[in-house]
Amino acid sequence: MRNLNTTISALIDDECAVFYTGMATGFDIIASEVVLEFKKQHPHLKLCAVVPFEEQEKAYSLDWKARYNTVLNACDEVLVLSNEYHAGCYQNRNKYMVDNSDYVVTWYDGKQGGTRNTLKYAQKKKRYIVNINTEFLKEFNNLQEKIEI
Questions:
Q1: Is residue 145 part of a domain?
Q2: Higher-pLDDT residue of 138, 143
Q3: How far, in Å, are 49, 58, 64, 107, 128 from residue 61 at the CA level?
């Protein structure tokens, strides 16, 4: 994911030092792994996991569960927002991350759902958004002029 590496590098160059992850399978964990690689060269970076509920990973495949646990164990901070799953727990996690961030890095594919809702919330909060899915750059990407990606 060259664009992900380039984006994280550009954010580090722009003095971004704290990265949040929601620890979902796919993009969240992959992006976390990239941040952990950058931490080797930039030890001042912090990776903070924002887990929506305890045992979020319980239904993950063995591979994703292993990657989840590796990332979680390497995080500088782990915040678990709820003891158990409940309606709205993912939305609470996403709002927490947006509320505590200046930038939102995403792989948005144009579909309705949680990612789209989070990006609309980030727009409302006037956060910088970078969507590294080049097929959907225009709708949620306001960083072209801020950083070079």
A1: no
A2: 138
A3: 19, 8, 5, 21, 33
